[in-house]
Amino acid sequence: RMSSGIQIKPKTAVQKSKTSPLPCSPEPVAKPQPKPSDKLNPKTIDPFGAHSRPPSAFAAIYAKGGIPCRLVHGSVKHRLQWECLPETVPFDPLLVTLAEGLRETKHPYTFVSKEGFKELLMVEGATEKAIPLLPRLVPVLKAALV
């Protein structure tokens, strides 16, 4: 036996072990200690960096294949390739969606929305198909002009 006043405590269940907790354990993971340099270099926002905002409605629909045309890159000019003839495409959801895409600023969305909107309105009988959609098209086109 040791005669000095030092007593060794046995580990109890309350004390945390030094090993990392298992992923399924309820113990929270400890946050890393902040570095002293963090005070000297505060976090800033990069105004020219990529924004982490969700894609617009037009971009999401285009990515899912909801617009029946694709951009074909030519050596000099780009063009749209339609999956079916523009004359047979239903105008109701598509024309409004392409009008919403006119607000886009990124390639290929800008080109697809402008050319698709223009090509749909140039098909034969487009006037009769587009007139019933005017109440829904006007606010979208106004928003694109702002």
TrEMBL record:
Region Disordered, residue ranges: 1-51
Domain of life: Eukaryota
Pro residues bias locations: 23-35
Pfam families: ParcG
Protein name: PACRL protein
Species of the source: Anhinga rufa (African darter)
Lineage: Eukaryota, Metazoa, Chordata, Craniata, Vertebrata
Gene: Pacrgl
